[in-house]
Amino acid sequence: MAGTGAAGGGLGAVDDGVTALACSMPKAELHLHIEGALEPDLAFALARRNRISLPWADEAALTAAKDFQDLQSFLDLYYACAAVLRTPEDFRDLMLAYLRRAAADGVVHAEIFFDPQTHTERGVAYPVVLEGLREGMALGERELGVTSGLILCFLRHLTEAQGFLALDAALGSLDLIDGFGLDSGERGNPPGKFQRLFERCRALGKPVVAHAAEEGPPSYITEALDLLKVRRIDHGVRAVEDPAVLARLAREGIALTVCPLSNLRLRVFPHMAAHTLPGLLAAGVRATINSDDPAYFGGYLNDNIRAVQRAFDFPPRTWYQLARNSFEAAFAPEARRLQWIAALDAHFRAAGADPQGFPR
Ligand code: HPA
Ligand code: ZN
After folding, report:
1. Mean pLDDT over all residues of the chain?
2. Which of 68, 73, 97, 226 has the fewest CB atoms found within 10 Å of its own CB?
3. What is the DSSP letter of 28?
4. Residue 11 — pLDDT band, cuts 50, 70, 90?
5. pLDDT tens for residues 129-158?
6. Per DSSP, what are the bridge partners of residue 234?
7. Separation of CA 345 and ligand 1 centre (Å)
């Protein structure tokens, strides 16, 4: 296979064979907001089903509204669209639509965020949300063989007391939750605001994660690690601005769930060539690639892979590393992680690229 050497990066130098290999390889998606997988056609179908009127004339008008200036301008639209989700069937259909799309991109396991406060605040009870999502996940596993987990995210623009109320609602069915996370507007809402809430979540025996250094400073990563004791950082792309934070992430093997198209659409970087993913990898950080909110940011996992490959022309070993990182960082039993990695190895060997020969 051509392109197995050092990363090139020259315009037009992309090896289509490497892109095909990366798109077809088995992988885990670890940063996906289920509300962010609500495509315009499903949003309008659910609006009709629930007799809700959306503030856009049609799907094209909604799509045209997805011209974001920053994280907050995206969140305003994202929360407005979530209004169409009302019944367990709505959440089931949304989940199944995402899992079908993910399976087509080679995703074999997904750890999926949901924002219960977005729904309970507008009168949709927590069990309605959970029942629908879990039904979609069960159907996805049966129909597609994709396994999935659910990470309950607290909205950081709300108070810690409101977070505790959301946690209380989840306590009756804790076995259906695989972890806790922190999302929404980062500026002015540092991880430390939720220290006591996350202490409680950890005491319940669940892994915790947090969005940090997407728009906020690298110090938010340090806070998330020291005060919330997170196992992964979501985004974390601004870590490169602080060499001590970068070195710590590498030393401690903390995974970053990087979302390249999201970062472009929210103007964290002006263009893909300015993305910090190569710098994170070069520093030895366990980075993964994810789609974040695919219905809003222009694509699912393989769309992210294609955009990254066009900008950086990574060799096969980098794609192997990214997929391997996704499995190593998954909240799954060791035996399952080893099975996934064995399947990944086999996929590369079948394509003529032996992972044993990749430099470590
Ligand atoms: N950042 C913060 N909150 C979010 C995001 C994101 O990228 N997507 C959905 N909620
Ligand atoms: Zn996110």
Report:
1. 95
2. 226
3. E
4. very low
5. 999 999 999 999 999 999 999 999 999 999
6. 211, 257
7. 32
- Domains of the chain with CATH codes: 16-41+108-129+150-352 (3.20.20.140)
| pTM: predicted TM-score of the whole model, two decimal places | 0.95
As for ligand 1, residues whose beta carbon falls within 6 Å of it are 33, 36, 71, 183-184, 211, 214, 262, 292-293
Nearest CA to ligand 1 atom 4: 184
Q: SS3 for 130? A: helix
Query: What is the DSSP code (8-state) at residue 276?
Result: S
pLDDT > 90? residue 296: yes
Q: Using a CB cutoff of 5 Å, list residues around ligand 2, an ion.
A: 292
Residues 6+ apart with CB under 8 A from 19: 305, 306, 309
CA nearest neighbour of 190 among 163, 153, 231, 218? 218
Cα 278 from Cα 309, distance rounded (Å): 11
pLDDT, one tens digit per residue, over 208-236 is: 999 999 999 999 999 999 999 999 999 99
359 pLDDT tier (thresholds 50, 70, 90): confident
CA atoms within 13 A on the CB side of 82: 23
What HEC string does 203-269 produce? HCCCCEEEEECCCCCCHHHHHHHHCCCCCEEEECHHHHHCHHHHHHHHHHCCEEEECHHHHHHCCCC
Which ligand is closest to the CA of 155, given by its number? 1
Which residue matches tokens 């490169």? 240
At residue 14, the pLDDT reads 65
Check 35, 131, 214, 223 and give the catalytic one.
214
Of 23, 103, 109, 104, the closest CA to residue 351 belongs to: 23
Separation of alpha carbons 66 and 68, rounded Å: 6
Please give the pLDDT value at position 238.
98
